[in-house]
Amino acid sequence: MADEEKKEVSFSDRFSSFMDKASKTASSLFDSAAEKATELNKNVKDAVEEKIRERDANEIYRKLGKKVYTLVRRDELQLPESCDKYIEALNELYADDEERDDSCEQAACECKDGECKCDEEQKDA
Question: Most buried pick, 2, 31, 44, 102, via CB within 10 A?
């Protein structure tokens, strides 16, 4: 009987030891996974913030480019010759808008049936 109790105690101790090791391994794996998930979350957050900054910067560059292009068209700003290809490309792109005056000094007119009537106040200004 003592041998059986020894085997049972021995089995019980081994089982307990196995469960402790399994528990520590599972805990270690969980901690490692949680750490990697936190790191991945930070990397994704940083990437998203960078994309948002890039999108905002592109919008600002676009608006600035429109203003610069308008000033160049009015001959109020001279750019280096290296920028000529960009101005020419924009001229081709906006070729249909040649008649439009971007100076905001044009009289307010209303056109119907081929006749245009302009505000007298705006016309005299």
Answer: 102
Q: What is the DSSP-derived secondary structure letter of residue 101?
A: -
Backbone torsion region of residue 113, taken as left when φ is above 0, otherwise alpha when ψ lies between -120 and 50, otherwise beta: left
In sequence order, what are the residues at sequence separation of 6 or more whose Cβ sits closer than 8 angstroms to the Cβ of residue 111? Answer: 117
Residue-wise pLDDT tens digits, 46-94: 999 999 999 999 999 999 999 999 999 999 999 999 999 999 998 898 8
Verdict on whether the full-model pTM lies above 0.85: no
Owner of token pair 């307990």: 16
Measured CA to CA, the distance from residue 51 to residue 46 in angstroms comes to 9
